[in-house]
Each structure stands twice: as structure tokens, then as C-alpha cells.
User: Which sequence fits this backbone?
């Protein structure tokens, strides 16, 4: 069975060893999935984020999950979509890869991702789904400790892009 699955839902409700947050490089403040995760986790999450001194685009940092059902939050910074010729696919792939490597370092077996960069940062959802799945497949090749990666779409339309990309053969 594939270690990668997709579902429609609210990532703040997912019981995984780690959920991934789509943050900005300050790791402090924002709407979208960031706002939802911080509201659900409580004030302590932003306090820990202040100690991290930001994060570069394409990189990831980890904190505790506080009041979330998830044990950890991995904060990654996706690229802003500028048309696709400014390194966006590599940076987006790097978000997924570095998040999974960090999860494995912290012995996480189950990890849930939102569709990074596809909201406020404007990355087209179909392209983002393909890049995400390719990067996850590649990273899982040498991360045997990660048993399950859940891709959490916020609505049916976003989910359809994931389903389509998951059906595609490894490319
Ligand atoms: N569960 C799952 N997915 C969600 C949820 C949720 N509760 N809420 C939103 N989404 P965005 P970005 C989806 O804008 O594009 C922040 O303010 C949403 O529908 O949250 O990476 C940061 O601070 C979309 O598909 O993240 C940055 O400034 C996806 O999550 C900036 O936004 C990502 O949308 C990052 O922008």
C-alpha cells in the first residue's frame, strides 16, 4: 500500500506525529492554515516560534504541538508564486523534503501536510500537487521510518488535484 494518501479536512484536527504549517519567513503571524494552526495550538506555539529566529524559503523548523492533537508542528516556508521561472518548483519541493527529513529526525512516523503555497502565496494548485507528490516520493525512498504521509486538502477542488497527481506514474 502507498505511504502517501490524500483527504479533505482541517489539518488542525489530524492526529499525526507531526503536522506541517505553511508559514512566512518570520514564522510569526499570518492567516490561512497558519492562523488555524496557531489558534488551535494556543499561545505557547507562537512563544516557541519566537525562539526560532525565522526560517528561509524552502527550509523547515520544528516545535511542539501544544494543544493540537499532533505531537509536533513543522513550520515550512513555501515560495511566493511569481510565474514559475524563479525557482518556485525547486523551493516547493525542498519544503516537502526538508519537512520530512526533520520529521524523521524526530522519530515521527505519521506526517500531515497542507497544500503549501497554494493559498495566499498563489501557487497554482495543480502544479503544486504534482511537485509535492514527486518530492515526497523521492524523499520517502530513504526515510523508511516514515510510515504515512497525509496530504490534507481544504476543499474538494484541491483534493481533486491531489488525486490526479497521485494517480500519475512516477515522473
Ligand atoms: N487545514 C488544511 N488546509 C488549510 C486550512 C486548514 N485548516 N486552512 C487553509 N488551508 P495558506 P500559503 C489551505 O494561504 O499559500 C500565511 O499567512 C488553503 O486552502 O495558508 O503557503 C503565512 O504566514 C491553501 O490551499 O498558505 C504566509 O504569509 C493552503 O492551506 C502565507 O500565508 C495554503 O494556504 C503562506 O501562504
Assistant:
Amino acid at each position: 500500500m502507498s505511504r502517501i494518501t490524500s483527504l479533505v479536512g482541517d489539518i488542525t484536527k489530524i492526529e499525526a506525529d507531526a503536522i506541517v504549517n505553511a508559514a512566512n519567513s518570520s514564522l510569526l503571524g499570518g492567516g490561512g492554515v497558519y492562523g488555524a494552526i496557531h489558534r488551535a495550538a494556543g499561545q505557547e506555539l507562537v512563544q516557541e516560534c519566537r525562539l526560532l529566529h525565522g526560517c528561509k524559503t524552502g527550509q523547515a523548523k520544528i516545535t511542539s504541538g501544544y494543544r493540537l492533537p499532533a505531537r509536533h508542528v513543522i513550520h515550512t516556508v513555501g515560495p511566493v508564486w511569481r510565474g514559475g521561472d524563479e525557482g518556485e518548483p525547486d523551493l516547493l519541493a525542498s519544503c516537502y523534503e526538508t519537512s520530512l527529513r526533520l520529521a524523521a529526525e524526530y522519530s515521527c512516523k505519521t506526517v500531515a501536510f497542507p497544500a503549501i503555497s497554494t493559498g495566499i502565496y498563489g501557487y497554482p494548485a495543480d502544479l503544486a500537487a504534482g511537485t509535492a507528490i514527486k518530492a515526497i516520493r523521492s524523499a520517502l525512498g530513504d526515510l523508511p521510518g516514515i510510515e504515512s504521509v497525509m496530504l490534507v486538502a481544504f476543499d474538494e477542488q484541491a483534493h481533486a488535484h491531489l488525486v490526479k497527481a497521485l494517480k500519475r506514474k512516477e515522473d
The pocket of AR6 is lined by residues 10-12, 22-24, 30-34, 36, 78, 114-121, 152, 154, 158 (CB under 6 Å). The CA atoms of residues 21 and 127 lie 19 Å apart.
